[in-house]
Design brief:
The structure is a single chain. Among the domains are: 46-140, Beta Barrel (OB fold (Dihydrolipoamide Acetyltransferase, E2P)), CATH 2.40.50; 244-276 and 293-418, P-loop containing nucleotide triphosphate hydrolases (Rossmann fold, 3-Layer(aba) Sandwich), CATH 3.40.50; 450-606, P-loop containing nucleotide triphosphate hydrolases (Rossmann fold). It is α/β, with parallel strands linked by helices. Strand 4 (77-85) and strand 5 (90-96) form a beta hairpin. The radius of gyration is 31 Å and the shape is globular. It contains 24 helices and 23 strands. Helix 20 runs antiparallel to helix 21 (609-620). The strands form 5 sheets. The protein has a 7-stranded parallel beta sheet with strand order 12-13-11-14-16-10-17, with helices on both faces. A 6-stranded parallel beta sheet has the order 18-23-22-19-21-20, sandwiched between helices. The chain has a 5-stranded mixed beta barrel with strand order 2-4-5-7-6. Helices cover 40% and strands 18% of the residues. It binds adenosine-5'-diphosphate (ADP) and magnesium ion.
């Protein structure tokens, strides 16, 4: 029986109509149901003696009915009352409006009761408890709790799962090789699928989860590995060999800079150049904390690509950023003869046509832009390199557009850049099909950003600091959580802050306003003014979080700092401290919430993105910090990328061992892995583009 092709309506109690409700939960067939895991369990295995029941608690007790249940009516309301004893203590049990129960409850009989305790004076009673005899209890003492949708109940789901498990008959091949299971002490697939839904005791579902979580990650790891392998063996790129002239030009470019490249930048550039000399297309992730100077690495990549006779594309997630990169890169590369254009949604139709035309004739070397560059009419004569900045900001759709663009005979080399701090082990999984360059070094002379928390009452002092900053000809960001005032909250809005600062506090200074609902060219204009030093204080929402670079900005005031995630605050703060000037970040918050304050304290103590990410994890618990959704990976059902460190490491180790022996996963055993990926994650092997 093929579960993947069997609709739920083949089950009892699941009509066509009901199966439509299951579809809302992404359960389209029996296999989906099998892999639709409980979000929790109702666990009645902990039985407490009656003398320990407490008012308000929900408890499970084992007790004998010691008095004939008494049914009483008032009008249409009824209640049924009886006494329970465990030999030492007596409490009562009461059921409202369920008169039929009086026939089911037998005196002198022992049952398991589960319900809420209420205290009246010195006596305790269980309110509307559920009850089971010994056999029923054994079957139901641990019950799965599933995520639901309107119209479905736990019982419907449990029942459907129960029927599916009865049909299961071991039809799925266990994709994990025996050796892997042994090394990691994992249970079989059959056992795990049954026990994750219907555990008989606490430990069974822990075992089941461990195995299934391992498998989930293992298959994704394997799929990404296969993708990488495929890319390496099938796709052909332009081999960009450096001639002596190119080497000379690269060296000249390096000495034309106003600063020395950092060791990390040099290593990353070397990684790029080495990759581009290969016939396999480069597929590399450049990961570097905010301010580590990734743009410079990109610049050298672009120059190398162009001097080798090719063309390149550099994409940024927002037009502000694209524009900024355009300015930085054109001022650096135009003087050495590289022709660069900016192409965004704001580019006029005429200009756009000119750019497209020049690109096709290769009169143009580098195009910098937003995803607008990816439209079908852009044809480059000889594209050899694509670079994506702030990779994590791009949606999946935009990324597959990039993949479309790349469907040429020669694949361009590809570099993606990201500031998201991802622990290495996790990176291996999330970016399993990418090579990794890590920039773990900031440019010389950077001073740590002094970070402080402050309250509203400190504002007069803060205004003084602001004025001093402007008097030193340095600039300021003021970040607000909202664009405009709202009746619903008393959060500071960018608009009201802008008014206050420009009219009341600093009428003599240039205050600018920037937020997401401005038109793109307005945003660009404000940004240009700010970078040109025409604006002293820029009031903004988080639109400036992405990559904006103005080294002369040295003070950042973040209002309602408690409203932002740690990672986001880290990114925001990364807008300052971009030169050898001293920078100060003030986290303004009147929150009394201890957790919130602790999070802010973390930022005051460290500037290391990894440390902050880890702390965030501890304090906030899991979330989609790493943006797995955006990476186009399947949503993990079981694995928790934050907490399951051990599993992540074990998966890596086991998988590594396998490919050392069988790099193409050709053996019988390993073919089962490939089959399972195709069966369970067909979309993964089809065209995920990281
Ligand atoms: P990010 O990695 O966050 O994208 P940027 O590329 O925007 O960082 O660089 C941050 C700032 O550091 C820019 O102003 C850039 O000009 C400057 N910068 C880059 N490399 C160096 C270096 N080696 N020495 C000094 N400053 C540098
Ligand atoms: Mg950047």
């Amino acid at each position: 029986m093929n579960f993947k092709q069997t609709s739920l309506s083949s089950l009892n109690q699941v009509s066509e109509k009901r199966s439509a409700l299951f579809k809302k939960l992404q359960i389209n067939n029996l296999e989906d149901l099998l892999f639709f895991f409980p979000r929790d369990y109702e666990d009645w295995t902990e039985i407490i003696p009656l003398h320990l029941v407490e008012d308000g608690a929900t408890v499970t007790v084992k007790a004998k009915i010691i008095s004939q249940p008494k049914l009483q009516y008032r009008g249409r309301l009824s209640w049924l009352r009886t006494s329970l004893s465990d030999g030492a203590t007596v409490i009562s049990a009461i059921w409202f409006n369920q008169p039929w129960l009086s026939k089911k409850l037998q005196v002198d009989f022992e049952y398991y009761f589960h319900g809420k305790v209420q205290r009246q004076g010195n006596s305790f009673s269980l309110q509307n408890p559920q009850f089971f005899d010994q056999t029923e209890y054994e079957q139901q003492k641990i019950q799965a709790i599933y995520p639901l949708t309107a119209g479905l109940t736990q019982n419907l789901l449990r029942n459907a799962v129960n029927q599916t498990l009865a049909l299961y008959d071991n039809y799925l091949i266990d994709p994990l090789p025996d050796q892997v299971r042994q090394d990691n002490q994992l249970s079989t697939l059959e056992f795990s699928l049954e026990k994750i839904h219907q555990p008989q005791d606490k430990y069974e579902h822990v075992l089941a989860r461990k195995r299934l979580a391992f498998e989930e990650l293992f298959l994704v790891r394997a799929a990404l590995y296969l993708l990488k392998r495929k890319r390496q063996s099938e796709l052909i790129a332009n081999v960009l060999e450096p001639s002596p002239q190119i080497r000379e030009k690269m060296n000249a470019l390096r000495s034309s800079l106003a600063f020395e490249l950092t060791g990390a930048q040099i290593r990353a550039i070397n990684d790029l150049l080495r990759d581009m000399r290969q016939v396999q297309p480069m597929n590399r992730l450049l990961q570097g904390d905010v301010g580590s100077g990734k743009t410079m690495v990109a610049a050298f990549g672009l120059a190398y690509a162009v001097w080798s006779g090719g063309q390149a594309i550099f994409m940024a997630p927002t037009s502000i950023l694209a524009m900024q990169h355009f300015e930085t890169l054109s001022s650096m590369l135009e003087p050495v003869g590289i022709k660069i254009e900016l192409l965004t949604g704001q580019t006029s139709a005429k200009k756009r046509r000119e750019i497209l035309d020049a690109a096709e004739k290769q009169e143009l070397d580098v195009i910098i832009g937003t995803h607008a560059v990816l439209e079908k009419d852009l044809i480059l004569n000889n594209p050899v390199l694509t670079i994506t900045d702030e990779q994590h900001r791009f949606g999946v759709a935009q990324r597959s557009a990039l993949a479309d663009f790349e469907q040429k005979r020669f694949y361009p080399h590809r570099l993606v850049m990201s500031a998201t701090p991802i622990p290495r082990t996790l990176g291996l999984i999330l970016y399993g099909d990418l090579d990794l360059s890590i920039m773990d070094e900031l440019p010389q002379g950077r001073k740590p950003i002094q970070t402080y928390t402050a309250k509203s009452e400190d504002m007069p002092r803060i205004y003084k600091i602001m004025r001093q900053t402007v008097e030193r000809s340095e600039q300021i960001y003021v970040v607000c959580p909202l664009i405009e005032d709202s009746d619903l909250t008393d959060l500071e809005s960018a608009e009201s802050t802008y008014e206050k600062l420009s009219q009341k506090i600093f009428p003599d200074l240039q205050v600018g306003l920037m937020h997401g609902s401005l038109k793109a060219d307005q945003k660009n204009q404000v940004m240009e003014q700010f970078v040109a030093g025409e604006i002293d204080i820029l009031v903004s929402t988080t639109v400036i979080e992405v990559g904006v670079d103005n080294p002369n900005a040295t003070l950042m005031l973040i209002q309602n700092a408690e409203r932002f995630g740690l990672a986001q605050l880290h990114q925001l703060r990364g807008r300052i401290g971009r030169s050898d000037l001293v920078s100060i970040c003030i986290l303004l918050s009147d929150s009394e919430d201890e957790l919130a304050l602790e999070r802010l304290k973390t930022l005051c103590q460290t500037q290391d993105g990894f440390e902050i990410a880890e702390q965030d994890l501890k304090l906030r618990g899991p979330g989609d910090f790493f943006g797995t959704k955006q990476h186009g990976l399947p949503q993990f059902k079981l694995i928790n990328l934050y907490q399951d460190h051990q599993i992540i490491e074990r998966v890596n180790r086991s998988f590594q061992k396998i490919i050392e022996q069988d790099p193409d996963l050709k053996s019988q055993n390993n073919q089962n892995i490939v089959k399972a990926i195709k069966q369970r994650y067909p979309e993964l092997l089809m065209g995920i583009t990281l």
